[in-house]
Structure to design on (58 residues):
């Protein structure tokens, strides 16, 4: 869900519908938590960066 929101620009509410009824607020809250964790955790940041590169094929 983090990558879907980060890469698509789709609202949390719309993503919640796509991910089977999760609230937009819950998606936004988790997105914010993961962003904070990415600032602290280099290993996670590297993994997310690699996933983005694979998804975007760069």
């Amino acid at each position: 869900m983090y990558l879907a929101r980060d890469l698509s620009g789709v609202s949390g509410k719309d993503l919640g519908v796509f991910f089977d009824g999760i609230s937009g607020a819950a998606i936004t809250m988790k997105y914010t938590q993961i962003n904070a964790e990415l600032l602290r955790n280099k290993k996670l940041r590297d993994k997310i960066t690699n996933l983005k590169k694979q998804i975007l094929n760069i």
Observations:
- The mean pLDDT is 94.
- Residues 2-56 form one domain.
- The two ends are 21 Å apart (CA to CA).
- Helices lie at 2-8, 12-18, 24-40, 42-56.
